[in-house]
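Narrative summary of target 7.
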Amino acid sequence: MEGTLSEDDGLIRDSSMDLNDSTSDPHMALALGALGIELNLDGPDIGEPCIGMEFDSDEAAKEYYISYANRVGFGVRMNKSRRSRKDDTVIMRRFVCTREGFHSKRVIYDDGKKKRKRGTTREGCMAMIEVIRKDHGKWVVTKLITEHTHMVAFPGKVQPRVDNSIIQNSSGLLHATSSGGFGNLKNFNRGIRVNPFGEGGEAEGLLEYLKKMQAENPAFFYAIQVDNNNCMTNVFWADAKARMAYQYFGDAVTFDTTYKKTKYMMPFATFRGVNNHLQSVTFGCALLMDETKGSYVWLFETWLSAMGGHHPDTLVTDRDKAMEGAITRVFPNARHWFCNWHILSRCKQRLSDVYLKYATLKRDLKECINHSETVEEFDTRWELILDKYNLWDNPWLQSLYDVRQRWAPAYQKGTFFPELSASQRSESLNKFFKRNFNSKTSLLVFIARFDQEMASQYEKEAQADFAAAYTKPLLRTPSPIEKQAAEVYTKEIFDKFQEEFIESLGYYVDKIEDGPNNKYNVTKEEDNRRAYIVIFSEPEKKASCSCYKFESSGILCRHILRVFFIVGIRVLPEYYILKRWTRDAASSVILDERATEPGLNFQDCLVAWYNDLCLDAVKYGIEGAMSSEIYKVAKAALQKALAEVVAAKNTQRKGQQNMQRFARLQKMQYKMPLPKLQTKKTPARSTQD
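Modeled conformation, tokenized:
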């Protein structure tokens, strides 16, 4: 053991000994977030620990904390001890959760021996108890932390530890195998959520489904997380279309965990975004058995790998402590927001008694959250709600207000994030669950129905692409700006732009400041109480508005459009046309950055090139299957391109063969022995000569 001096002249000793298991086998530690057979512990009721508790010995304190941990459902190990400098007896002991701290990174040396990859359960949990021996001989609790950073088991039930390893498959790199699988799992870590994996070997069925999908499309990606017993814990997959869509519309992503809303739902989560038709698009799916920080880190890193390593600008999730820690680690530069739909849904649960008492509370909260245009207006409405319903002392609302910058739209203006319309919100994952899932639905049936939903989603996207290419929207004015917008935007985006353009005609403008950046006051004719400030730069032909609509949605607001009309701008500057909202949003060729990144080894380059070409092939198939004529053109072009690739490959192969032949000839020339020269014999001269 290593020792360091303490603050009060004692010797501190660190230990990683697990105390829950009498066999001292670290693999049997009773830790949080595990999945497997539950063990019922029958024993006396253990009270809650508190500062000042006294024990006759350190052993009694240890036994108490182990019993308390078994009741709550977490693992215990001894972390530190301190000895007296006078008689070298132990005067302090500290017991911690088995998930305390983090494993240090060790250098692994390759000595040719096959090593088993070990997982880790350390995730920085701070739960602990520290007892010190006082002068009167009693051991007293002096430090105590009862909060955990992870989910704990239900009272009376504890579960064996999970060590996480990864089986992942992308483009045929690794093939997953299953031993035991989900059929070995009796309950989730919460002990109440419906088990979708059942007893019928559905893990094998899921694995066969994933292999089949990848056999049909090599760009299909999946990854499986397993524990020490080779049982699956978490699964992620994404098809080629999802991976391709992320390249165009992955600037803003929602991690949808709607299943948490009802405890009997399938633990099924999706990464979602919005395309150029304002339709919901899926960037990947996951089955989450374990909801610890470590599992979320695995999921986010796996998803990021499947998406080519491109980080989203904004990520919206449910409010969850473990998830928040994982996002900070995996996406340190992304803006992490909380979904206000989940916030309102949670308010209904947390304030159920107040909702029953006041029927107008729900409406007032919605108006405050969704219709406050400024920070000041939001704060004023919030305070009025607290006054009206006497909720100043409500801890739930206070905790929400403390993090309002991460979920209130008024605080998020100026940051781009596309929103779905009200009609499309009805197609959310929550509605899908209600239509297709009950407690008896099997995993494979659920996935088959979700595949049907995805097929319907892709069909609607194809129909919208076709309509955008072959139909023209109805213009309501002779303005060249409206005509320009109709030519570049999709129908759905143009409808929103047209609404702003028509509404701009009802506003009047007053110049309030002159100079390089002119400042204008824009108000509506019948309501001049609410004014908007537009700043216009004449040299750059750029404008900004106090409503921040363009920065938030990528569509110009009515106030800037009115100023453009006043200053004589008749054509939209290219800066104000976001490519993601245009008809050609998915037409650009995106090269996988990893394919050109220097420093990659040859095997990694092969994988990156293969993935990049597969994504392009999927897009080629979508564009080429529009009609019989287009199919024939696409087929001929593809055959021609394939012939050119094969010819280039043969040319390269012949060049390599010639180089190898030349090298062999040179090698043979150097090894060939030189011929010996014959020496001429000269006749000896006679003595007479």
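The two ends are 103 Å apart (CA to CA).
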